[in-house]
Design a protein that fits this description.
77% of the residues lie in helices and 0% in strands. The protein is mainly α. Helix 3 packs antiparallel against helix 4 and helix 4 (69-84) packs antiparallel against helix 5. The longest helix has 18 residues, at 47-64. The radius of gyration is 13 Å and the shape is flat.
Length: 105
Amino acid sequence: KAKNVVKATKLFRECLSVREKSLHAIHPDVIAVLQGLSSILFDQELYAESFQLNRRLHNILKALRPLSEDMATVCHSMGMCCLEIGQLDAAEEAFTESVRIESAL
């Protein structure tokens, strides 16, 4: 099951390897699906993979909707992944960004 999730992640990454000019073409449902996939990876204890996917989502959302609920969620998810892999400074940074965004909404 975990191998299928990793394969799906690679497929989604390939689908999302678009230039910044075409980021606006990414449908909001794709973002939601990727957030769901990130949660599945996290639940499967594939923290590094979940972090990588969240990082990609972060970059996409930074270009599309930097102050959004989705961005706050992605930052929180990145923080959780960082905690699990022992990257405490990175976790603190991600959680701080999440709180900053939620405060601005």
